[in-house]
Amino acid sequence: MVQTIVTQIEDLETKIRDCDSRLQVIDDTLRLKELQEAERQSLHEEEKQIKKKLTAYESNLKELRKENRKTMLMSVCLVGMMYLLYSWLWGT
């Protein structure tokens, strides 16, 4: 199935929300619970991995939004040209 740019943007936004949510849980766990050093290290490693993913997702989202703006601009230009052609042909 072919995904549209809008669908891809929505998917990335969902992934970003999931990452933010997980980072919040990790942060709360690190601050509020007594943990053994191994558990603390494990959570810090997971936090690093999630932040890496989050950076990649945000970069991809930025590119998709840029592409979406280009597509929208092209659509507006085409509609405008069609309107001008219509008014020129049938307006006289």
TrEMBL record:
Its organism's taxonomic lineage begins at: Eukaryota, Metazoa, Spiralia, Lophotrochozoa, Mollusca
Q: Mind telling me which GO cellular component terms the entry cites?
A: membrane
Q: Which residues form a coiled coil?
A: 33-74
Query: Which protein is depicted?
Result: Coiled-coil domain-containing protein 167
**What does UniProt give as the signal peptide span?**
none
**Keyword annotations:** Coiled coil, Membrane, Transmembrane, Transmembrane helix
Please name the InterPro entries in this protein's record.
CC167
The membrane topology of this protein is:
Single-pass membrane protein
- PANTHER family assigned: COILED-COIL DOMAIN-CONTAINING PROTEIN 167
Q: Where in the cell is it found?
A: Membrane
Q: Which organism is it from?
A: Magallana gigas (Pacific oyster)
Positions of transmembrane segments: 71-90
